[in-house]
Amino acid sequence: MDERQAREEIQLIRRMIDQTKRSTAESGTLFVVWGVLLTLALVGNYVLASLRLYDWEWLNWVAAAVIGWIYSIVYGIRRRKKEAVRTYVQTAARHLYFGCGTAFLLVGLLFPALRVYSYESIVILVATVSGVLFFVMSGLFDWPLLRGLGLFWWLGAVVLSLVPFPARTLVYAGLFIPGFLVPSFLLQARSKKNS
Amino acid sequence: MTPDLFEPLDPVIHSQVRLAVLSILLAAEKADFNYLKKSTGATDGNLSTHLVKLEEAGYIAVKKSFSGRKPLTTCSLTEKGRAAFARYVKALEGYLPPGR
């Protein structure tokens, strides 16, 4: 073994580790599905509010959550069966998604239904959890854009708390497009490029 | 510095395919046979031989199961393997000039 061979071996180690990390990068599919579903739910909410069908707004969100969760579980099981390699980052990310998904259900549907707080506060809490989701993801996937999104959502939560209801929901919809929908497609594009 | 002063390299790891397999398993919680084959560029028989050597040394754990009707071999790094890999990398660094 000489210096050149030692360098070659270290390069091989680096190449294998990088390759493994790239092949298991976040695909973004679930984010796109949730992004589209929540956009449709936001539009549905607007239409129902315009028609003064307030009792149906609740069902609109429940439907979006149920469809999203069923899709997520089926997608997760199928992907797990097919995966040839699983990294620690993927396992950590799965726990993060499940944790934040549960938190969204609790703060967005269950707690308001139990009248722990008014439905007017939902978007503030959802924005706060979104901040946690993206901020932790930035660490897992080493992508500074996601860190920026985490900060964006936390700042958004503060802004939302200062805006009175019902304008608050409109502001949330305005934040949702650059803060969730666009990054979801960027995440998917990045994954395709890497693979 | 003469070669005698260098730390000896672990002969179980000192092979391109085995080093590549351990590097993959260091980044991954587990990887299946086909992924390792594709990543290392080894043939079925060649990779099997290397995996047996690593398993016999206690550096990797090999689990055989079925995915539907197809046999599935999944490998993961053991604690002993992780420690051996760390020692190997440290020994490798000894062959580089200081600060490089």
Would you mind describing this structure in some detail?
The complex is a heterodimer of chains A (195) and B (100). In chain A, 85% of the residues lie in helices and 2% in strands. Chain A has helices spanning 3-23, 29-50, 54-82, 88-113, 122-141, 144-162, 167-194; one strand spanning 85-87. In chain A, helix 2 packs antiparallel against helix 3 (54-82), helix 2 (29-50) runs antiparallel to helix 7 (167-194) and helix 5 (122-141) runs antiparallel to helix 6 (144-162). Chain A has 195 residues and is mainly alpha-helical. In chain B, 48% of the residues lie in helices and 21% in strands. Chain B has a 3-stranded antiparallel beta sheet with strand order 1-3-2. Chain B contains 4 helices and 3 strands, in the order H-E-H-H-E-E-H. The longest helix of chain B is centred in the C-terminal third of the chain and has 15 residues, at 79-93. In chain B, a hairpin with a 2-residue loop joins strand 2 (60-67) and strand 3 (70-77). At the A-B interface, helix 1, strand 1 and helix 4 of A face helix 1, strand 1, helix 2 and helix 4 of B.
How would you describe this structure in keywords?
heterodimer, A: 195 residues, elongated, B: 100 residues, three-stranded antiparallel beta sheet, 4 helices, 48% helix
